[in-house]
Amino acid sequence: MEERRSFDYDGKVYFINTPTAEDIKQADWVYSKVYTKSLMEGIMTQSELTDILTRRGVIGPDYEKRRLELEEELSTKIMELAAAKTVEEKQIKALDVAQAREELFKWVQRLSGPMSNTCEQIADDSRLEYLTSCMVEYEDGTRVWKSYEEFLSEKDQNLALTARFQVMLYLQGMDSDFLENTPEALAMREIEEELSKSIEESDEDEEVKEEEVETTSTNKNKKSKGKGKSKKDNA
User: Fold this and answer.
1) Which residues contact 36 (CB under 8 A, 6 or more apart)?
2) Is the pLDDT reported for residue 89 higher than 80?
3) At what angle do helices 119-135 and 21-40 cross, to 10 degrees?
4) Percent of the chain, pLDDT > 90?
5) How far apart are CA 155 and CA 144, in angstroms?
6) How would you classify the pairing of strands 136-137 and 12-16?
7) Nearest-CA neighbor of 109 among 68, 151, 158, 59?
8) CB proximity list for 195: less than 8 A, separation 6 or greater
9) Do residues 117 and 43 lie in contact, with contact meaning Cβ atoms separated by under 8 Å?
């Protein structure tokens, strides 16, 4: 039996179950209702907003060109990180990758930011929230929220947001800890392990040196006592 996906929150473990056909059907119905309501209230669609952003020069050929440049720069930095040998070099390259990823994220936000307020995105957010209310369970298989309305009225918003994020990752086929497994994150963990190992080895060397000093000192004392005893015997 396949192990259920899980995530931790506030010291508790929650589980994510596969949505049923009825869950998906109802989630699609929620999408349609929210999309229609948003449209009736005058919220723009993605195509309408894309036209406006293009006319204003926010997106277009220059935007795509810069996005591709940033993606290529990130790929180059990741390859440089993979080729790094020393701890110092890995640390520098890992920071370079993190910075390149941040720059790409900020640039893409020029488009994804405004698009988050379109009819499609608002409806898609509601669909995700409905699925979250259906898919998150306790260990015994009972649902955390008995209904969509109960999820929407959840007082612990951090729990609701965490659950929603984890369900989104699950539906997109991404690992729950994907942020911890980026090349730069893995490199930083490797650096920490190497530094920790180096410190441990250094401590062990110090202990060996101390033991050698104690042994040498003990031997000297024994010889000194031996010589003193020999002089008394001769006397």
Assistant:
1) none
2) yes
3) 150
4) 58
5) 13
6) antiparallel
7) 59
8) 87
9) yes
CA distance 68 to 102: 14
Using CA atoms, how far apart are residues 69 and 182, in angstroms rounded to an integer? 20
Return the biggest CA–CA distance within the chain: 118
User: CA 63, CA 54: separation in Å to the nearest integer?
Assistant: 10
Which stretch, 67-71, 89-93, 185-189, has highest mean pLDDT?
A: 67-71
Its pTM stands at 0.71
Q: Which tokens in the block code for residue 62?
A: 């220059």
Q: Are 4 and 18 in contact (CB under 8 A)?
A: no
In SS3 terms, 67-98 reads as HHHHHHHHHHHHHHHHHCCCHHHHHHHHHHHH
Give me the residues paired with residue 28 across strands.
none
Q: Over the stretch 206-230, which tens digit does the pLDDT of each residue have?
A: 665 666 556 666 655 555 555 555 5
Vertex 18 angle, CA 120 and 117, to 5°: 15
DSSP the chain: -PPPEEEEETTEEEEE-PPPHHHHHHHHHHHHHHHHHHHHTTPPPHHHHHHHHHHTTSSSHHHHHHHHHHHHHHHHHHHHHHH--SHHHHHHHHHHHHHHHHHHHHHHHHHHHHHTTSHHHHHHHHHHHHHHHHHEE-TTS-BS-SSHHHHHT-S-HHHHHHHHHHHHHHHTT--TTGGGGSHHHHHHHHHHHHHHHHHHHHHHHHHHHHHHHHHHHHHHHHHHHHHHHHHHHH-
Q: Is 57 left (phi over 0), alpha (psi -120 to 50) or beta?
A: left
